Amino acid sequence: MMKKLVCFMIVALISAVACAGTVAFQAPATVEVGDVVTVTVTGTAGVTSVTLPQILSSQAGLASNLFLNPLLNQFPTVGTAVNAGNVLITGISGATPMQFPPVEVLAGATIYSFDYKVPDVTVGTMIDISGAGTMYFQFGDFSAVTQIGSATMEVVPEPMTIALLSLGGLFIRRRK
């Protein structure tokens, strides 16, 4: 009897670990001042509910066009763009309709996304976008607080600036 109980516990633990996943913020690696880029949140396993109290940016900026995957439509709260200080969005939540087994937003699909307008910062600035507070994701019928990454973008000069600097360098070299 004890062996059966131990075997059952091991199988349950392996199943729970297999259902757990990670959540990642995805955004372009390089951006220019004033660009509007889409930031997406995806999971490595199927997600059935999500709660992110806040989305933060290390350099402010503006969030707009909030999107919550339509499969996560049980709760009316999708999120509110507050754009105050470093807080971009608050109150993101949603869940699939209550049924068993739950319908999942497939692994790799967008769980949540929004547009982000890059603020007026100096070239070379690194912008981090991440979640804050107690974030909750449910993968299948297994609840888990998971590892949640952040998106990092580097602000680069616009192509015209690089072209003008290059031409200026050529003219200076030619004078010598």
Task: Give a brief outline of the structure.
With 176 residues, the protein is an alpha+beta fold. Helix content is 20%, strand content 41%.
Mean pLDDT across every amino acid position = 75
Order of helices and strands: HEEEEEEEEEEEEH
CATH topology: Immunoglobulin-like
Instruction: Tell me, briefly, the overall form.
Output: elongated
The proportion of residues forming helix, as a percent range, comes to: 10-25%
Strands, count: 12
Question: What Rg do the Cα atoms give?
Answer: 22 Å
How would you characterize this protein structure?
Strand 6 (80-84) and strand 7 (87-95) form a beta hairpin. It contains 2 helices and 12 strands. The chain has one domain (25-175): Sandwich (Immunoglobulin-like). With 176 residues, it is an alpha+beta fold. The chain is 20% helix and 41% strand. Strands 2, 4, 6, 7, 9, 10, 11 and 12 form an 8-stranded mixed β-sheet that branches. A 4-stranded antiparallel β-sheet has the order 1-3-8-5, with no helix packed on it.
What is the element layout, followed by pairings?
Blueprint lengths: L1 H18 L3 E4 L3 E2 L4 E8 L3 E11 L4 E7 L11 E5 L2 E9 L14 E8 L8 E7 L3 E4 L2 E3 L6 E5 L3 H17 L1
Parallel strand pairs: 2-12
Antiparallel strand pairs: 1-3, 3-8, 4-7, 4-9, 4-10, 5-8, 6-7, 9-12, 10-11
Task: Name a few traits of the molecule.
disordered N terminus, elongated, single chain, 4-stranded antiparallel sheet, 176 residues, 12 strands, 8-stranded mixed sheet, 2 helices, 20% helix, alpha+beta, Immunoglobulin-like
